Amino acid sequence: MMNRTYQRERTNPFVEGLFATHTATALELRESTAAERCRKLAGLLDAILARRVAILDAAHADLGRHPAETNLIELLPLVGEVKHALSHLRRWMKPRRVSSTLATLGTHSRVIHQPKGRCLIISPWNYPLSLALGPLVSAVAAGNAVILKPSEFTPATNRIVKDIIAAVFPLIEVAVVEGGADAAAELLTLPFDHIFFTGSAAVGRKVMAAASNHLASVTLELGGRSPAIVDASADLRSAAEHIVWGKMVNAGQTCVAPDHVYVQRDVAARFVDLCRETITRRYGETDIAVRCSPDFPRMIDRRHAERVAGLIEDAVVAGSLIACGGKFDVDARYVAPTILTDVPWRARIRHEEIFGPVLPVLTFDSLETVIAEINSAPKPLAIYTWTRDSHTLKSLRTRTSSGSLGVNLCLQQFAQHNLPFGGVNDSGIGSAHGFHGFKAFSHERAVMSAGPWSALALLFPPYGERQRRLSEWLVKYLT
User: Fold this and answer.
1) Is 173 helix (H, G, I), strand (E, B) or coil?
2) Residue range 269-309, pLDDT digits in tens
3) Where in the chain are the domains?
4) What predicted TM-score, i.e. pTM, was given to this entire model?
5) Of 115, 98, 183, which is closest to residue 148 (Cα–Cα)?
6) Set 69, 173, 186, 255: catalytic member
7) Which pLDDT tens digit goes with each residue over 202-221?
8) Of these residues, 81, 221, 275, 410, which one is catalytic?
9) What is the CATH number of domain 227-422?
10) Cα radius of gyration rounded to whole Å, the chain
11) Does domain 2-222+431-443 have CATH number 3.30.230.10?
């Protein structure tokens, strides 16, 4: 009781009042129909599309992103998520019949999806639109009341997100609470029914610990040092073009981006040349040209630019070679597209998530050593491979673990709404997108009804010889 009183005293009165209204709203929303939820989702889609220009401008202001890149990596997946939910929600909501077992003859069983109730979404700064509104789509589809806490690092996009939500939802149903880490900490003292967090593993642990105080369920979309593997059988040009895109899009600030790449030694030099050519062709031949390119984004702030620049400097001091780039200007939030080779084990960049436009190229002779190194580290959010060798693919599929496995592609799995998106252990808990997102915000409730006749009645006390023999028969033939 003392702990609960302490928490109430620390919580912002406005937030506490908002949460109280959501408690009542959540009870009402349990009875919402598919048609009602679809109307809200359709309104959300219209509000997003009506603000496309403002969204593009906000992403450029916050992250220096080209409008085409924002269309591709934020609007396209988000619009696809809403349309997918609109197309499938009625089927998702239908009770699912479950066959009776011999031990439950005479009964009827089904699974229904109930809203979890009061939900908290804490979204990050790297994709401030899609990673805020994408989970909201799933929460609304499942029939929940939601408080959304966006990152304080993207003020321009946050204004658009607030405007979109205010245009579609009443405050008592979906609300935005802004602020920094203190605001998130205050929200986490409240007894939400489900928390959806996207961010670092370090903060994810704090979110999970806070959720445990109320036994709230969580979906944690975390980071992870996602490796790429390129063997000698690969289409090297395709591998270089895709990996450079996946690494440099959003200036490398993508949780599911390839973090580093293992390349078979015989083709490593050619692969590096192709990566260098790809970067030059897309962003410019000189550092000045790259700095002036409208196609290359910026780091979110000076601190993050300084951190990535520090990783480059540490790698060079440790003995790494810069094959491309290596320049930076932390005051301008600029880190050039960079390729590092000969990166020794002692370099920090071999052990920390980069989250920036720096690609360490690590050579290998045996796939066994690559698999052993992957398995010795926390499970990544994704593993990517470029190969035409069925043995390579089978080995990676069966002997490694990751949230997803991409074969001759990267990042595209995020836009496949029929697949679960999520990590494993350090890279995440639970899944999002499509039906998997709907399930994350739903409670699968078991409903079992007795028919006019029940076999169980044959086993009621008093226990005689008949009951003993029948129970023995059931144990023998039903187990």
Assistant:
1) coil
2) 999 999 999 999 999 999 999 999 999 999 999 999 999 99
3) 2-222+431-443, 227-422
4) 0.94
5) 183
6) 255
7) 999 999 999 999 999 999 99
8) 221
9) 3.40.309.10
10) 26
11) no
